[in-house]
Design goal:
Number of strands: 7
CATH superfamily: NAD(P)-binding Rossmann-like Domain
Structural class: alpha/beta
Shape: globular
Strand content: 15-25%
Helix content: 40-55%
Number of helices: 8
Largest sheet: 7 strands, parallel
Radius of gyration: 17 Å
Oligomer: single chain
Order of helices and strands: EHEHEHEHEHEHHHE
CATH topology: Rossmann fold
CATH class: Alpha Beta
Length: 252
């Protein structure tokens, strides 16, 4: 049986890494991207291979749309060389960077970084990968609980995620003729190295998150990796244009 192939951006660490390992367990092969952590990315490739799957790591700066044509050409080459295929099945727009800055003090440079990485990047990367996506494929965009609830210091980051949620509905509408679905996964606060490991390493922040979550704890990478695998599974085929929050019931 042919394995499904997923592109996961930002796959060298954190949620991306966990999602790739969960996908590999379900027999999904992966092209993962990394920005600077080549060694960490290769370690993820090896972990997929150890499970009997195939994986390739490619460098990509999702904040620089000018580099996307080169990246897409590399993807095309890898599909042919590694899988003897012309197409991929899933795209997970996961890559991101954090920002904690009050609205009153956010700089234009910080705003542009958030926009380029979280909004312009996924918009044009997905657009340029469309010719390589198989009919009946899946787009999964990663948002944030911060697009639903407001915590001070997250305005620039959260508004880009809000825009991604709107974009997802348009992608679902316009790509439906090809059988391609588009959905959003919005994690709550998760214990990773994101934003300097704030939730994972700061006991005070972790306690505040836990006390505001119905299930009484902060999220773990496994909680999100499992959701990614679930939302890309055949069983989720009829879900389209939806925002699914995986936050354990945070701020409800």
């Amino acid at each position: 049986m042919n394995h499904k192939i997923a592109i996961v951006t930002g796959g060298s660490r954190g949620l991306g890494k966990n999602a790739i390992e969960k996908l590999a367990k379900k027999g999904v092969d992966v092209i993962l991207t990394y920005h600077s952590q080549a060694e960490a990315a290769q370690a993820v490739v090896k972990s997929v291979q150890a499970q009997g799957g195939k994986a390739v790591a490619l460098p990509l700066n999702t904040g620089d749309a000018r580099t996307f044509d080169v990246f897409v050409a590399q993807v095309k080459t890898q599909l042919q060389q590694v899988w003897q295929r012309e197409t991929l099945d899933y795209l997970v727009n996961n890559a991101g960077v954090g920002l904690h800055e009050d609205f009153a003090t956010t700089t234009e440079e910080q705003f542009d970084l958030m926009m380029n990485v979280h909004l312009k990047g996924p918009f044009f990367l997905t657009q340029k990968l469309l010719p390589l996506m198989a009919d009946g494929g899946r787009i999964l965009n990663i948002s944030s609980g911060l697009a639903r609830f407001a915590l001070p210091g997250s305005s620039a980051y959260a508004m880009m995620k809000g825009a991604i949620e709107v974009l997802t509905r348009y992608q679902a509408k316009e790509l439906g003729a090809r059988g391609i679905t588009a959905n959003v996964l919005a994690p709550g606060a998760i214990e990773t190295d994101f934003s300097g490991g704030m939730v994972r390493d700061n006991p005070q922040v972790n306690k505040i998150v836990a006390s505001n979550t119905a299930l009484g704890r902060a999220g773990l990478p496994d909680d999100i990796g499992d959701m990614v695998a679930l939302m890309l599974s055949d069983e989720a085929r009829w879900m389209n244009a939806q925002r699914v929050e995986a936050s354990g019931g945070m701020f409800i």
